[in-house]
Amino acid sequence: VKFVFDTTVAAGFSILETQKEFIQRYRRRHHDSHALPMFTSSCPGWIRYAERVLGSLVTPHICTARSPQQIMGCLVKDYFSKQQKLSPEKVYHMVVAPCFDKKLEAVREEFYNSLMDTRDVDCVLTSKEIYHLMEKRKISWEDLDSVPLDQV
């Protein structure tokens, strides 16, 4: 691991994109029956449930803004890789997430960037998987040094 980022900046972008979409939908509300209500979620489990179970009743109302995980993937693969003078396919972006469903989100077809020939997020490990890896290698939290996070 060469760089460690916090997704807070990506969460901010996600909120801004969500607000922008809501304003656009609000302005269309009188001539677009799918404009409102607008459902938002960064939970890929809920999104999959809505798509597969609720279907066309709900899916037109789901906000199209990317989740913080996917926005961070774009920032790392595009913006940060250029800063580091690396081609995006040379950057392996791994996310540590609290939920297994974030793995499903990362492999969605729309999150493959054909122009850069790479995924926004290459791998997702859950917090539990990190814990088990540390346990397997007999590494305790107390043995780890604290280092500042990198900035995009």
Automatic annotation (TrEMBL):
Domain Iron hydrogenase large subunit C-terminal: 2-151
InterPro entries in the cross-refs: Cytosolic_Fe-S_CAF, Fe_hydrogenase, Fe_hydrogenase_lsu_C
Transmembrane segments: none
Lineage: superkingdom: Eukaryota
SUPFAM superfamilies: Fe-only hydrogenase (SSF53920)
Family that this chain belongs to: Belongs to the NARF family.
Annotated protein name in UniProt: Iron hydrogenase large subunit C-terminal domain-containing protein
UniProt organism field: Xenotaenia resolanae
